[in-house]
Amino acid sequence: MTRLTPYLTRVLKANSARSTSLLNARPTALPLVASLKSSSSSSVSSSFSTSALAREKHAQTTSPPIVGSPVTGQDLMTGEVLAGADIDPSALEIELTSSPKTIPPSNELQFGQTFTDHMLTIPWNVQTGWGTPKISPYAPLQLDPSATVLHYAPTLFEGMKAYKDGKGLVRLFRPDKNMERMTRSAARLAFPDFTGDHLTTLIKKLVDVDSKWVPSEPGTSLYIRPTMIGTQAGLGVGASTDVLLFVIACPVGPYYSTGFKPVKLLATAKDVRAWPGGTGGYKLGSNYAAGVVPQQAAAALGYQQILWLYGPEHQLTEVGTMNLFVVLSHPDGTTELVTPPLEDMILPGVTRDSVLALARAHEKGEAVLQGLPPKFKVSERNLTMPQLREASKDGTLKEVFGSGTAAIVSPVSGIGYESELIDVPHGEDGLGDVARVMLREIVGRQTGKIESEWSVVV
After folding, report:
1. Confidence band (pLDDT; 50, 70, 90) for 368?
2. CA distance 123 to 130
3. Domain span at residue 385?
4. Where in 60-165 does DSSP place strands (E)?
5. Does residue 175 sit within a domain?
6. Per-residue pLDDT reduced to its tens digit, 385-437
7. What whole-number distance in Å separates Cα of residue 29 and Cα of residue 392?
8. Most-buried pick from 22, 49, 258, 375 (CB within 10 A)?
9. pLDDT band at 26 (very low <50, low <70, confident <90, very high)
10. Could you tell me if 413 and 263 are in contact, meaning their C-beta atoms sit under 8 angstroms apart?
11. Same domain, residue pair 160 and 272
12. What CATH number did the domain enclosing 367 receive?
């Protein structure tokens, strides 16, 4: 008998209305900023109108509305809520390591190579629901060789960071957005649903237990990797009856340790990252493995990243594993910030959402971001490579950058396309004007220099 997972239940109910639901997605209310903490950052800060302080609103489109039921562990016939229906933070068990590791100096940190002393694990079973959350010493997982994750790739992950502010407090940046995206991805894989705030509470506890691992130098952070995998033993494609949710963390240094270095992109339509109706809008492990060979091919030609194109018109989608932004100028003096619409091919990045929120606040006059022009427009629309090439030729292309958790912003200096290298303007510091402002504003909120509800103290 087919198990009615949250995703399948929703698809059966809403399949006929899918196209209209994408057009009518409810905007998500996201907090902006309030004020500055210190005068030292005021010279580079944003100033906000009274209305922005009162309302703390912005217009932002949402991800495609594929969402699971509020909780799992509910009998679909009787409606009875079963034990283990949701993650229970109050049941947390903690086992501290007896052999703490030596923390390397911040200037020796390599991304994803050194992990903290502890990890969080929460098992799930289709009959018993969510099990006991445990923080225990970091250790290898035990998997049956026939585990579903090893054969059919039911796995998802998130990427988020913790920062240490000037007072020594540890802060998470917009964890609610990571949880929102994680539960969407879980529904897409027929994984169990859970309350995002419950997992955030447990992540906070893990970070608190390993707080000495959070570096304090500028540009450093603790990278946090929540992950879910199907662990059911046995071959056969289907919804996994056993799932493991685990969280690991590693201290990381600055993405650009010696200053920003603009990258060159290879625009390709030969290899396709995502397509309508696919899983490109979800943070699934399977979306990343297939990009390795195209990335190697680009590197062999002297390019640092892939610019993924789609369709006969060569629409811009994403850059490497980041969201894409293009800055254009118009004859009336307006500067336009363009990014491809989410639909179901673009990953709803947390940094992407933050850039759009800040830019739209400036566009609407709810905030004044120093460094952005007064005539400023934000667009989520499709842009093609022929259009980008033409903008480069007529001088209206002003900037291209990627956005993501690792680098925040990644400036672009050139794009290889059809045997031609398209030059992209950037400043002497490697950044364009818009990327520079967004980096300043987002880092300010991540580190607590700018007061914002986006920054959550652990």
Report:
1. very high
2. 6
3. 263-443
4. 93-94, 118-125, 129-130, 134-137, 155-157, 160-164
5. yes
6. 999 999 999 999 999 999 999 999 999 999 999 999 999 999 999 999 999 99
7. 36
8. 22
9. very low
10. yes
11. no
12. 3.20.10.10
